[in-house]
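quick one, two chains, predict together pls
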Amino acid sequence: MNIKPLIVTGLLSLVSSVSVAENLSINISNLTQGIYFTPLLITTHMENVHLYQTGTAATMELQAMAEGGDISGLLASSDTLGAVSVANPAEGLLAPGMMTDVMTLDTGDNDRLSIVAMILPSNDGFVGLDAWPIPSEPGTYTLWLNAYDAGTEANNELIADGSGMPGTLGVPANPGHNGGVSGTGVTTNESNQYIHIHRGNLGDTDAEGGKSDFDSRIHRWLNPVAKVVVTVH
Amino acid sequence: MKYTSLSLSLTVAAFTLGLGACSGDDNNDANNGDRFETVTFRVTMTNTTHNQPLSPPAVILSATGRYAWDLGLPASDGLEVLSESGSPSAFVAAFDGLVSATGAEVIMPGQSVTLSLTTDADEPLALTVVSMLVNTNDGFTGVTAWPVSHLARDGLISVLAPIYDAGTEANMETADSVPGPAAGGEGFNALRDDVDFVSRHPGVVTADDGYDASVLDQSHRFDNGAMAIAVTRF
């Protein structure tokens, strides 16, 4: 199976498009009470490029991000397509209730904005924005982002060292250290292998057992999980 | 007749001060800021949840840019009292807007209430609306610093207000910590035993979802969006 590093639909125009370079400022807020975002990838790219699309299978690079927070593959692939990106503006995890800023980003010839980061604790959950058309009109634009499931790993909700590697089942970390241990596992089955809206964490209230290592009172969310404010200068 | 500029201290609800253009005076004053115009906003609030009564709402008109809460920052003391007990008076007093009104009773699921605010403040105005989801620990819904001055006469703007967590009380859902009819427990507790910042609400778990100590059942669950707010201007 030929897995492309990014999804490129249709033809990329090789002729410089009519888009004019924009200078953007981007503010991203973690709206949740108990969910962390791993290092964010913010990328401006051409039309027909997607880091992910709902209803399609995740690429290997998307899987690496969703399962382990590794954005290096997506960043490298974006670079080869002429994207202008900012990686890890928060210099690490973006904790619940916190925000981070990209003060200036020159889009060059790119006129779409995408954002991804893994959400923790989860097996392969991520927060995402897919190819938002960047307005040419100067102004301030507010976007609300949902949590997605990459469809590449069963949501067993068990913490396991080293499980950030694609193919290794488990949740790599719970940064808040406020869950449980010794869960038996919520499920071993990922029946939906397409990218889709995350059905949420289940969790339980058993600190030393139960099905999940997550706390149902702390590690759930209701969409949206992120607020993005884009200023076009 | 010369208009003097006044600092207006406005009273609650339907009064306006008796200042207006002198009849028969059609001087075109060069300074438009000296004309006083009364404006009334009618705010209709509808409870869109399945089984989360909303506490008597507070509605406040203020200058623009005045936020009653900020995501990621601690709730004010007044908001803590409101979000844990449903009582709005401390919140309203502390916010100190131009004019305010509070509902007389709880808004039951599916029901609506309309409150009116009248002012002749000569500045851009914004609306704050807030109410507690009573079958939660510290869940509230509403809007803050929502600009309304652009609304034309007889125009209407509307929004489905999100559900927030005040972060002041852990979401234990126990009988002694939830004040609503599901439990009848304690409302306000000055101890802040949760994350101490305002966030979007993560939802309730309930006993039907395996949390045995919860006094809530599946009917108390909600997804984002608790109150439909419609504002018209007269």
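The interface with chain B takes residues 29-34, 96-99, 200, 203-205, 216-225, 227 of chain A (CB under 8 Å).
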